[in-house]
């Protein structure tokens, strides 16, 4: 874990750059992380991001399927918003932990 | 008389019947367990069956043998749970309950992926998460002449998340022993960011894939199987060709959970992570693969859960507050091929680390390091499963909580990006 300054705010991040504490997140941080990945955030991106944050706060595990059934975007649409790793990049931008397995 | 009803006589349900019968007065509590199937499978054995390491008879026994005396065992299909009425509808009768334990597990749902059940299913596409699938794959591998072997995970969560990786390692070893490794190209495909997603593990274990010459395709979420071209295709139209596809289809909870309106979008039941009480109904408890808790879906997890749940059922019955003690503890052997294995010990918040298990500094098992002793441990575990674990006999020195004794926090994760 280390401290990184994103959008002028000091936040705790994992070694791969995921926020350790989702309460440190704000929209400017999201935009900064997104631009590092090469994504420009639109209102649709934020709808997905807010959904992910809501579910994470409720301690629900996230899957691509779940986002696809959220009514916000289908899976193809999710890939268009976050190419090459939809859940990975959307989680990083949303300030929530990286989806992991047990090892 | 009051009724405690257990749905499912797999690993978790059978353990609960064995734990609870001696602890509940038989003049006050009836215990009933329902499962439509007669056979109890040793599911970890499905990993070994395809490679002819285990025989059919080593992985299955009659379920009745493991249900204790004075527990009513009903072999019927469960149609619906009526949680508002405290009733469960079976194919031809309805049972009342005061306390319900749901242990209906998870199963593969290949129909969720377009084209998976197409013309190649059970010809060039196999699963090894069912007895039938594992056996069919064994018959295929006995005569397979080589080509592109693709080992694939559809989506998380899955039962025993390391099993597909173990399958890849064992396949490498199997084809080398057969003298045909040069004819087999092994690719591991995952929807996650890699084979190892936790920093300690990717740091300590990344060498395994290189050493075994297993190719990696990460961040691949399957959209459909192309049966014509023999390719799996993702949502960005990336295509991975195969001659033999060993896939782990979507895992879902039982359809009775969906019919009863108790589950999430994968039919897993929202469950308190620490007490194992269902979030929606206070007299319903959930254990094992049927829950939505973010622990691994594995027998070892069910084993640790069973100890907490037994205490909590007794507390609930007597009107006391429940223990919030289940910590997500899992303890799993991971086969790496060549008669070696790893052992990992972790919980909801602590990643697998180095060290010795179960005795600090002594072991004899090594954590997160390959050893022959760990492999023998995995093989010995089959005996422990049939003779101790599902009978609810405590495994000496292995606690329900993750212990920090004997753990060495020496891994500095590689820094990526």
Structural account:
The complex is a heterodimer of chains A (103) and B (417). Chain A has one domain (2-94). Helices cover 46% and strands 10% of the residues of chain A. Chain A has helices at residues 27-37, 43-57, 64-68, 75-81, 86-94, and strands at residues 2-6, 9-13. Chain A has a two-stranded antiparallel sheet. In chain A, a hairpin with a 2-residue loop joins strand 1 (2-6) and strand 2 (9-13). The longest helix of chain B is centred in the last third of the chain and has 19 residues, at 299-317. In chain B, helix 1 (11-20) runs parallel beside helix 7. Chain B folds into three domains: 2-107 and 252-317, FAD/NAD(P)-binding domain; 110-250, FAD/NAD(P)-binding domain (3-Layer(bba) Sandwich); 331-408, no CATH class. Chain B has 417 residues and is α/β, with parallel strands linked by helices. The radius of gyration of chain B is 22 Å and the shape is globular. Chain B contains eight helices and 25 strands.
Return Rg of chain B in Å.
Answer: 22 Å
| Distance linking N and C termini of chain B | 63 Å
Q: What's the total helix number of chain A? A: 5
What integer is the average pLDDT of chain B?
93
CATH domain topology of the largest domain in chain B: FAD/NAD(P)-binding domain
How many helical stretches of chain B? 8
Annotated CATH architecture of the largest domain in chain B: 3-Layer(bba) Sandwich
* Broad CATH class of the largest domain in chain B: Alpha Beta
Oligomer: heterodimer
Q: What coarse outline of chain B follows from CA principal-axis ratios?
A: globular
Percent of sequence in beta strands of chain A:
5-15%
Order of helix and strand elements from N to C terminus of chain A: EEHHHHH
Structural class of chain B: alpha/beta
Q: Looking across the biggest beta sheet of chain A, what order are the strands in? A: 1-2
- Number of domain modules of chain B: 3
The dominant shape of chain A is: globular
Count the beta strands of chain B. 25
Largest interface: A-B, 28 and 39 residues
């Amino acid at each position: 874990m280390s401290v990184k300054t994103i959008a002028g705010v000091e936040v705790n991040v994992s070694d791969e750059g995921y926020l350790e504490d989702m309460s440190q997140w704000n929209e400017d941080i999201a935009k900064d992380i997104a631009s590092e990945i090469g994504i420009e955030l639109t209102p649709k991106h934020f709808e997905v991001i807010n959904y992910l944050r809501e579910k994470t706060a409720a301690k629900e595990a996230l899957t691509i399927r779940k986002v696809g059934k959220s009514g916000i975007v289908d899976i193809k649409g999710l890939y268009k918003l976050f190419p090459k790793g939809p859940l990975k990049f959307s989680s990083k931008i949303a300030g929530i932990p990286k989806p992991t397995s047990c090892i | 008389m009051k009724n405690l009803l257990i749905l499912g006589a797999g690993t978790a349900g059978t353990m609960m019947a064995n734990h609870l019968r001696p602890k509940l007065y038989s003049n006050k509590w009836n215990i009933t367990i329902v499962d439509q199937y007669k056979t109890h499978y040793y599911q970890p054995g499905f990993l070994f069956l395809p490679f002819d390491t285990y025989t059919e008879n080593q992985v299955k026994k009659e379920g009745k043998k493991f249900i204790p005396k004075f527990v009513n065992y009903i072999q019927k299909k469960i149609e619906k749970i009526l949680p508002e009425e405290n009733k469960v509808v079976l194919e031809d009768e309805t049972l009342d309950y005061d306390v319900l334990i749901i242990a209906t597990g998870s199963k593969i749902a290949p129909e969720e992926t377009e084209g998976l059940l197409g013309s190649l299913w059970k010809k060039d596409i196999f699963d090894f998460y069912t007895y039938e699938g594992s056996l069919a794959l064994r018959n295929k591998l006995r005569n397979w002449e080589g080509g592109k072997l693709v080992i694939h995970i559809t989506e998380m969560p899955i039962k025993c998340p390391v099993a597909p990786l173990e399958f890849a390692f064992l396949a490498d070893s199997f084809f080398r022993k057969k003298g045909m490794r040069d004819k087999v190209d092994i690719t591991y495909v995952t929807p996650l960011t890699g084979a190892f997603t936790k920093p300690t593990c990717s740091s300590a274990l990344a060498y395994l894939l290189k050493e075994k010459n297993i190719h990696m395709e990460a961040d691949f979420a399957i959209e459909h199987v192309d049966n014509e071209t023999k390719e799996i295709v993702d949502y960005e139209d990336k295509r991975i060709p195969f001659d033999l596809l060993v896939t782990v289809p979507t895992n879902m909870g039982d359809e009775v959970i969906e019919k009863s309106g108790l589950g999430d979008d994968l039919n897993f039941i929202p469950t308190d992570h620490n007490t194992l009480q269902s979030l929606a109904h206070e007299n319903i408890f959930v254990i094992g693969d049927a829950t939505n808790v973010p622990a691994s879906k594995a027998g070892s997890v069910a084993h640790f859960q069973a100890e907490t749940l037994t205490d909590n059922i007794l507390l609930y019955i007597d009107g006391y507050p429940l223990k919030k003690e289940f910590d997500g503890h899992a303890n799993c052997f991971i086969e790496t091929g060549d008669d070696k294995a790893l052992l990992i010990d972790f919980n909801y918040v602590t990643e697998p680390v180095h060290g010795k298990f179960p005795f600090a500094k002594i072991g004899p098992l090594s954590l997160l390091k390959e050893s022959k002793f760990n492999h023998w441990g995995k093989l010995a575990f089959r005996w422990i499963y049939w003779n101790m674990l599902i009978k609810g006999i405590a495994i000496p020195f292995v606690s329900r909580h993750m212990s920090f004794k004997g753990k060495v926090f020496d891994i500095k994760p590689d820094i990526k990006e």
